Amino acid sequence: MEPIKIMPCLDMKNGRVVKGVHFVDIKEAGDPVENAAFYQAEGADELAMLDIAATLENRKTRLEWVRKVAAVLSIPLTVGGGISSIEDIEMVLGAGASKVSMNSAAVKNPGLIREAADRFGSDKITVAIDAKRNADMVSGFELVVSGGTLPIAKDAVAWAKTCQEMGAGVILPTSMDGDGTKAGYDIPFTKAISSAVTLPVVASGGAGKLEDFYEAVVEGGACVLLAASVFHFRLLKIRDVKDYLKGKGLTVA
């Protein structure tokens, strides 16, 4: 098994790090460059930076944010938000990102995943999948796009399989039901995705205590653990999470 990685996430709005609950009730959580440097020093293995308003505001990711954050990092940086073309990916990678994360644009044009994977390599292409519970779906989870505002009556787990077939390198599923709640990752959703694909799966949405990280691995099948609130508001330290997982017998990066 690959070593487990810890990935803090900087949700960006108006140049600041923010954090919401269920994708709304947004609160400020500091400066992105300071946070990025702090998390790297704390032992983060990777960092995510998501421009949460880009798609809704019909604009591209702010490249100046990417450049500033990438400048203080030596760990991989995944950037998402408003990435909808090969040119966008080229610019974001050129600004210092190691990987890009696509969501709404990939749903709209699945061929973009294959084109991007062929051009830049699968290892640089993450597909983010936002979903919420819906009993009408075969898997019980419905795909939601446009920053969590638009359910589209498409099965989220079936979509994950399509993403793998198209050449995605990583799947990043976020449960809207769990996002920001600190009530624990949505294990059934994470497990549904990890069972359907052979790609690395990033657990995202709802981490609140040390046990949540362990459950995401052993029950959810995730190998990268993304969290925001618990790190931004200093409720947990990255080192504490790693020590806890090691103590439970897991191999961490």
Question: H/E element string?
Answer: EEEHEHEHEHHEEEHEHEHEHH
C-alpha Rg (nearest Å): 16 Å
Number of domains: 1
CATH homologous superfamily caption: Aldolase class I
Helix content: 25-40%
In CATH, what is the class? Answer: Alpha Beta
Q: What would the CATH topology be?
A: TIM Barrel
* Continuous helix count: 10
How many DSSP E strands?
Answer: 12
Named at the architecture level, the CATH assignment is: Alpha-Beta Barrel
Shape descriptor reads globular
Beta-strand percentage?
25-35%
Structural features, described:
Helix content is 34%, strand content 26%. The chain has ten helices and twelve strands. It has helices at 32-42, 63-70, 86-94, 104-108, 111-120, 156-166, 187-196, 210-218, 229-232, 238-247; strands at residues 5-13, 16-21, 24-28, 47-51, 77-80, 99-102, 125-133, 141-145, 150-155, 170-175, 202-203, 224-227. Strands 1, 2, 3, 4, 5, 6, 7, 8, 9, 10, 11 and 12 form a twelve-stranded mixed β-sheet that branches. Helix 8 (210-218) packs across helix 10 (238-247). It is globular, with a radius of gyration of 16 Å.
